[in-house]
Amino acid sequence: MSKGFVVWFTGLSGAGKSTIANALKEELALRGRHVELLDGDEVRTHLSKGLGFSKEDRDTNIRRIGYVARLVSRSGGVAITAAISPYREVRDEIRTETPGFVEVYVRCPLDTLVERDVKGLYKKALAGEIANFTGVSDPYEEPLHPEVVCDTSRESLEQSLAKVIDALERRGHLDRAVRERLPEGEELGALRAEARTLPRLEVGQRELSDLYMLATGALAPLNSFMGQQDYESVISVGRLANGQPFTIPIVLRAEAAPTAERIALFAGDQPVGILEVASAFKTSPELEARGVYGTGDDAHPGVRVLKESGRWAISGAVVALAHPTSGFPEHDLTPTQVRAVKAERGWKTMVGFQTRNPVHRAHEYLQKVALESIDGLLLHPLVGETKSDDIPASVRMGCYEELLRGYFPPSSVLLATNPAWMRYAGPKEAVFHAIVRRNYGCTHFIVGRDHAGVGSYYDTYAAHRIFDQYEPRELGIEILRFEHTFYCSACGGMASTRTCPHPADLHKTLSGTAVRNLLAEGKDLPEEFTRPEVARVLLDAAKEEATA
User: Fold this and answer.
1) What residues are annotated to the active site?
2) What pLDDT band is residue 289 in, cutting at 50, 70 and 90?
3) Do residues 321 and 191 make contact, with C-beta atoms less than 8 angstroms apart?
4) For residue 174, which of 163, 166, 182, 186 has the smallest C-alpha distance?
5) pTM for this entry
6) CA-to-CA distance for 181 and 222, rounded, in angstroms?
């Protein structure tokens, strides 16, 4: 488990403590940290109700905040406080008693505070109408040696937040963030030219997907292909070596260890990346198969890929010189771009939905149930490499577009592609998918009964139970565990095992095999299974394939 710490914002009323604190809370949640924000006004309403504004009462209020903050950090969480805390002595007392204490002084001149004060409290205090008003009729003692000083009269929110994040990273409280690193223009041209002078390693579409997701921050907190400690920890306990949740090894496999410190990754004749070699180690395919897939059976598609791959793993930071495409470039959005759309639309919450199959009525039902309480839906189909008998990504994307065109409000849904390749790792991949969606800005993620499953390798609802291995909010995203859904002829609509009392023979569902057989025979899919427009896309694609 990651170590907890306390970020203590102090400054005059109206200086911007709560604004920066809330921005910090959102950023830390995106990094997978459990965060509790102790805002001064809320604490006064609940924890310190009845206390006045004498020095003794103010000190008591701060000691109570400090006590709760220590409890949060002691359990591995991050406590953020945003209270004036005007007296230096009691702040220093809290510092002494609190491991991982980071003081942030939010400074702002009095004249600026008066201008900002829409309630006119400063003017009343200056006129003598309010007693014991900090900064006017009661003293505020500035910190002598704060870890961070933010001057909100000169800095933007983004600049102040960056200062705080940098201080936390430099002190080891946070890993350095994985930020988008996609060179363009002259830099890209120069790197591609350099790649042609370096030792080459041939890679395929799976490796291209991984290096592109590393470069865009989609696999945060990873910023490089894994080293041996992370690899072994992930396959044994489902965490990185530092304790952060991660369940799928992200390694660059090769037949032999490299001899160069810098190598170029090529897909055919095209350079797709440059790797700074940090180390190389031999993998353990048998242990990895059991730890990730829960089986060593060669018939499992993920195990088969693993055993057919090179035994060496090369770790190191990578620069992406190309990116995979779904054939729908308008939907190929990076995590930064998805977050930007989320912000533009004013979504405070966003639920992610993973699918590698054509969308059907059960999917639509889950998505709409979630949208009843969540601001927006990220429909995020996986378009990387899948099994040969899975329906192609281009056909699936056409299905999603048809569904959204006719059955969802455009303002509530964003369709974007997920460039990952499919491992079919069941429960372990469910956690991995949740982490990826957190990095794309999702606050919630839908997990079904057989998430990322294939065949009968995983127990029903194992993908639900695996999340019990992680502390609440440790993943930085809330998991929505949905039961099996179906069309019930007696209910006259979509239902689940939680809501429908009728026997299974009244439940209308279709297996993937049944769907493929109907399509091969040119037959319509029943409306209880999928929308007619979606069925038409699938039928047209099946006919085209049959005549190709």
Assistant:
1) 85
2) very high
3) yes
4) 166
5) 0.76
6) 13
